[in-house]
Amino acid sequence: MFAEAEAEQAVLLLDEADSFLRSRRLAERTHELGEVNEMLQGMERFGGIFICTTSLFEEFDETALRRFTFKIRFRPLTPEQRERTFVAEALQGNSKGLSPERRARLGQLDALAAGDIAGVKRQTEVLAKRWGLRIPVAVRSRALHEARGSPAPQHRFCELLNWRGKPRLSTIGR
Question: For residues 133 and 124, what is the distance between their CA atoms, to the nearest angstrom?
Fold first, then answer.
């Protein structure tokens, strides 16, 4: 991977890099140690631009972190950013649709990140193509969150539109 990127003078982007650079302290098998070591050596030799993404920053190998010039963490949106993003993405720029109730509910979504909203937007585009529906930007199935077993900031974000539609979206993703 490193050799190919260097030969092409390409920027190397490794998405979900924690799969390859998980802390060796968390390794359960000896081959996991070898994989991380091999990756560290590749990073050390690589002369190009190398970008990694992860949502498990705390599990990243400490030695790997020291090899990065920049470490950028995208934190959840502030209350003001949530309102601006909701108006732009869910209300198509019409701030009159941001009722006091919606504003209060947005204020409770302290874990909402830009990636959550982008995911909602991608899902609605897929669903719209599949069923030929005009689906509001902020539709999200509770079942998808429950299947992940994680908090559901996207679902709560989408509930702000109080969207009701067909087909039943709760069966998607099971």
Answer: 9
Among 71, 68, 75, 80, which residue's Cα sits nearest to residue 106?
Answer: 80
Query: Is the Cβ–Cβ distance between 120 and 140 less than 8 Å?
Result: yes
Render pLDDT for 12-44 as a digit per residue (tens, 0 to 9): 999 988 888 888 777 677 777 778 889 889 999
| CA atoms of 16 and 77, how far apart (whole Å) | 21
Confidence (pTM): 0.56
- Do 42 and 98 fall into the same domain? no
- Is residue 134 situated within a structural domain? yes
Domain that holds residue 89: 79-171
| Domain assignment of residue 72, yes or no | no
Amino acid code (one letter) for 171:
T
